[in-house]
């Protein structure tokens, strides 16, 4: 099996990247359509934003389901089932005619897409040691980072020429392509354990074993809280850029692509500096950087100097920090696990998306017609992550990773 994996490394990494990106792409592509969907459904933008929150909740809960299944039945079978659910839910999103059903079907769509996120992380743990895993996570982040560049621009293009439903038609086609690639070209990396129990008590026991591991807990929280600032940005960016600063749908897509390119820059630098620095050292410095940027945003907002070019530059710098934090903390959080890689990956993803759902929901709840909710939530998550890293991280062994 390992020989086959080595000989097809590029194809496998590409498929793993696509599996990781299907969720983010499903988020980013319809962001420019919030106002159009709200108008079509005769509702408000903040109601449409709830379909984003329901997506995050679906991903968070769904990963807890797939984790044990990946450990018992291997990686591919649960993954293929999840992709089929994604395809079905996307069809339902195309056919929906009201915002309430859209919120529900986006939840179902998330339940399908999260299979790819859990399985790809578990497969990395099957193949690689922690330091190499951090480099592979950086490669996957490159694919993930491309989605915010392509997706909003593609969504805006479709809105300029077609109805918003065609955004979901495009997602359906993407889902079918990934399903076919996974079935035909992705080899199984772990055959599963027949003795792995799916009884609730056993599943909870396995999750608890993962959760009480101090390395997992600290770096899961550090990465998840820092990453949730990105979800706050996703929830608030459409309103802030299009309604507050007056950008058109096409301009919003270009602005979104610019700030998302920060993650591409970060992930490629991260791969290089991992040869000299550890994941812990890199993520600490990135935490400090992200918090400094967050404080600068607050100061500019309070002094009424947060003009659009300044905001765009600061968000670029903020996401630059995210591009270093996410791959390194993910690799560190999963490093203690092999046999429970599926459960560990699921719990990590659940916490990441659960906190993301909370922060994106807070942006909607605090919506007041200004950039304040988005900026405040982004700043709070960055500073909180930094504090956890420095207070709890010093007692963790494994500084060599």
Automatic annotation (TrEMBL):
This is Bcr/CflA family drug resistance efflux transporter. It is found in: Cell membrane. SUPFAM superfamilies: MFS general substrate transporter (SSF103473). The keyword Magnesium does not apply. The keyword Cell cycle does not apply. Residues 12-396 form the Major facilitator superfamily (MFS) profile domain. Belongs to the major facilitator superfamily. Bcr/CmlA family. It is a multi-pass membrane protein. PROSITE patterns: MFS. It comes from Sphingobacterium griseoflavum. Pfam families: MFS_1. CDD domains: MFS_MdfA_MDR_like (cd17320). The chain crosses the membrane at residues 48-67, 79-97, 103-124, 136-158, 164-186, 216-234, 254-273, 285-302, 308-327, 339-366, 372-391. Keywords: Cell membrane, Membrane, Transmembrane, Transmembrane helix, Transport.
């Amino acid at each position: 099996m390992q020989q086959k994996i080595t000989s097809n490394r590029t194809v496998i990494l590409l498929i793993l990247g696509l599996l990781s990106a299907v969720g983010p792409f499903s988020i980013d592509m319809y962001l420019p359509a919030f106002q159009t969907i709200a108008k079509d459904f005769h509702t408000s933008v903040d109601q449409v934003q709830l379909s984003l929150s329901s997506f995050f909740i679906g991903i968070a809960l769904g990963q807890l389901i797939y984790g044990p299944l990946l450990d018992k039945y291997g990686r591919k079978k649960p993954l293929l089932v999840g992709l089929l659910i994604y395809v079905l839910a996307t069809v339902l999103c195309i056919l929906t005619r009201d915002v309430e059903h859209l919120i529900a079907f986006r939840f179902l769509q998330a339940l399908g897409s999260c299979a790819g996120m859990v399985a790809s992380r578990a497969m990395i743990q099957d193949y690689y040691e922690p330091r190499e895993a951090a480099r592979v996570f950086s490669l996957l982040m490159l694919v993930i980072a491309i989605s915010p560049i392509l997706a909003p621009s593609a969504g805006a293009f479709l809105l300029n020429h077609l109805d918003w439903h065609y955004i979901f038609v495009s997602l359906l086609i993407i889902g079918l392509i990934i399903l076919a690639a996974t079935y035909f070209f992705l080899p199984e990396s772990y055959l599963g354990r027949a003795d792995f129990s799916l009884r609730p008590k056993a599943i909870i026991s396995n999750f608890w074993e993962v959760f009480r591991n101090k390395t997992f807990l600290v770096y899961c929280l550090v990465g998840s809280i820092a990453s949730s600032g990105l979800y706050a940005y996703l929830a608030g960016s459409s309103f802030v850029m299009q309604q507050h600063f007056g950008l058109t749908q096409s301009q919003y897509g270009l602005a979104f692509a610019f700030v998302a390119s920060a993650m591409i820059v970060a992930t490629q630098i991260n791969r290089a500096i991992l040869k000299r620095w550890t994941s812990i050292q890199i993520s600490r410095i990135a935490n400090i950087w992200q918090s400094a940027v967050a404080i600068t945003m607050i100061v500019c907002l309070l002094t009424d100097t947060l003009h659009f070019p300044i905001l765009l530059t600061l968000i670029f710098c903020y996401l630059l920090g995210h591009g270093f934090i996410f791959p390194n903390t993910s690799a560190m959080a999963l490093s203690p696990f092999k046999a429970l890689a599926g459960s560990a990956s699921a719990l990590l993803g659940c916490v990441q998306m659960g906190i993301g759902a909370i922060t994106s929901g807070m942006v909607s709840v605090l919506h007041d017609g200004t950039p304040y909710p988005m900026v405040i939530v982004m700043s709070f998550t960055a500073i909180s992550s930094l504090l956890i890293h420095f207070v709890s991280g010093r007692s963790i062994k494994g500084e060599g990773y």
